[in-house]
């Protein structure tokens, strides 16, 4: 036993897979402690907020300020206001006035403004430009002027008598320390279509998916193991009946069966455990088949015969003389079943046949939501890419562990 | 004196286990075989006889590694050669090797004649297929093998026939040394006899110049080879002609082996057998003295610390490795038999 | 590991006895075993008759595929008989229920060919021996008594029980494992021992020891030994009676000397002439 463990942890593949998997598990355990709360809470009103740190505008007004004179502050501020489209329009006006802008970098706000200030003339009438367009440029120019100036902004609040009271006057050189702002929120992976924190949701979803995988894997392995043991050891009629059932399940594509069962259960009853059970109930066939073939090769071994001669009963022989010999194999089958259970859940949920959507997030459901709200079309990568990465990492680590174990237990595969 | 076909000098090879431990399975083995002679190697399982067979090919692959010593086949030193060169220029033409399960190594999707083409083309890539075919037919006829077998697949032949065909294939280039490792152990006694008869004939006709025959079946060895060598824990402990070795062994271990022979012959039934207790030493940590000392009835206290060299005695070619003199051992044995 | 304290010794395997007057222990009439059905039918054992007497050492000699292992499984009751009947002490053997089987297995036990696969590698050696004590009704004995019995059984085969406790079978050599199997029989004390090639995977040096112990055990318990082997030389040395088996049939049987020295069946003659010998010449011209 000790020696086997030593060999297992000598296998670099197993160790790599094990470290990744344990890392994921640690994340699942530790992150909710740091960031507690309901993972399905809709904190955002809009959809797909980009990843980043959010600072409460309201709170910054009343936070104590420091004056900092930063030379490039004005330009940056302008740059933030000046949208991509506006910059392009400015370049269009300049070139319409036959000014060479080919060497100009539009993202360089400073240079663009310098050229603009030097050349813009309200009265100029570039060829082919309508009045509406000329007015647009007037407004644009005016807004640039006001931003560039060192004016102050006054924030007022209506008091009880309905009079506006000045709360604060904000200058362009006033800064607050983010530390002092009471309300900030770091959304590492932004929010999803419902305005939920994606990271929190992802951690919770990965947990649920692994749970579904474990339940599905355990159900499939237990059923497959029991049927395989009985069919392989007893042989004869029992073997024929069990293999008949197994063959029926093998012939009907498992995934079709899975879809039909999931559909007929109905949305209301489909919690995560039910989905796990359904996946487990449709995927035990290959475990049963391979356990059976292993048992057949073991049942005529001399130690089994001796055990029979010693008068031991069926269950004792199965438990002490057969099961320990195939235990390593069963562990490997279990790992593969867990991995394929997680993938099966993702497939089902992607089709909208996953667990009830309002209760728990799963990796598959997150993919489903991202797809329904076209996250892949509007560039909200944070809504689906981390999910894909998580599924890949989990099944990669499980398969890596399985390969490592396989090499330990089947010496012929060792390189 | 006849021409020496195979000369091995102080050959040492080792296995490296998965936990990076060294196991010296062949430890400073020296032997010579003359043209037309055969040498049998006897010993219990794990004594290094099969490893010696592998090592003599000069073709090493992990976990077996060459350490030191020389293997000289008909004047050509093949030890330490690049494995690819050995495969192309030595195997098949100088040294041929037949493992125990050779007959199960034939690819079932190919005809027997294809294997012969492969063997010959490995040495001469331009060899003409038709000539090869003629050569194969001639060889099969000379060995009384049905030439129809050439167009058959391996699965269509019986076990004994398969083994004979494999031997014919691997010796098609008339190698100087044939190393046969338990070539007939998986066969029934009648097929075994047929295989042995064919090997004998091949020696007589010069299709193989010399042979090393390895088996744990001593009566078989006695009937097949000219000389017998006994190995114990990676070392040679005794060598002599087959007759001398079976009826007059000197080393206590050889004597134990020879006195464990059971044959269905009249009058042998009341023979006393020798039972040696214990197991061979672990070659990861071989004992510093005589390797057999721990199990030896005649061991002196000093045997545990002194390792004895292999020494010649009596008639030509007899050697043994023991701290006692031959005379002493013979006297002790005679006394024992009298009781 | 060194648990052997016995020294190199000389042993004689010739312990012939006259058993012709002993009562029948195990006999069979038309015992047949057919595998498969229809066109794929394979008759492994074909209507064999036999009579094994109490205290007799019978060898069943046959080459691989002759059906000797199938016959041994039937004798042990591990494989049902397709046709014919086996008699135990003159009465038809009844192993129809589990209870009756258990009772039968108190009378017949086995040692198999491969010591490495005869042990459950996950069980300690103590477990193997304790099982035997429990099986023969010693379940309620105090532990000291059980240890005493195990120590006695081990010393019968020159093993030291104290050095074996808490060890696993794979820590032993093949010879030691096979000796432990004999110790198991020593504890079980069956009426019949079926030994299926018990020495074919044992080195020549240890073979004599194992056989010697087996013969001593037979003298000690007075059991019938059915020795299954392919080695006709070995059969000649140890048996009272020899049965020669070819293609599922017994072609010849009789006392060891009769069968080996004056064989009558052509198959037996061929078998004996094809085995390599050391005193007589081995005539290679008899084969094609």
Helical residues, percent of chain A: 55-70%
What sort of overall outline of chain C do the alpha carbons produce when their principal axes are compared?
globular
Report, as a whole number of angstroms, the end-to-end distance of chain A. 23 Å
Multimerization status: heterotrimer
Question: What's the alpha carbon Rg of chain A, rounded to whole Å?
Answer: 33 Å
Instruction: Give the strand tally of chain C.
Output: 11
Structural class of chain C: alpha/beta
Structure characterization notes:
The complex is a heterotrimer of chains A (415), B (339) and C (288). By secondary structure, chain A is mainly α. Chain A contains 16 helices and six strands. In chain A, the strands form three sheets. Chain A has a two-stranded antiparallel sheet. Chain A has a two-stranded antiparallel ribbon with strand order 2-5. A two-stranded antiparallel ribbon of chain A has the order 3-4. In chain A, helix 2 (12-34) runs antiparallel to helix 16 and helix 10 runs antiparallel to helix 11. The longest helix of chain A is centred in the middle third of the chain and has 37 residues, at 198-234. Chain A is elongated and about 110 Å long. The model of chain A has no long low-confidence stretch (mean pLDDT 86). Chain B is globular, with a radius of gyration of 21 Å. In chain B, the strands form two sheets. In chain B, strands 6-7-8-3-9-10-13-12 form an eight-stranded mixed beta sheet, with helices on both faces. A four-stranded antiparallel beta sheet of chain B has the order 2-1-4-5, covered by helices on one side. Helix content of chain B is 31%, strand content 23%. Chain C is α/β, with parallel strands linked by helices and 288 residues long. A six-stranded mixed beta sheet of chain C has the order 7-8-9-4-10-11, sandwiched between helices. Chain C has a four-stranded antiparallel beta sheet with strand order 3-2-5-6, covered by helices on one side. In chain C, a hairpin with a 2-residue loop joins strand 10 and strand 11. Residues 1-5 of chain C have low confidence and may be disordered. Chains B and C meet through helix 6, helix 7, helix 9 and strand 11 of B and strand 1, helix 8, helix 9, helix 10 and helix 11 of C.
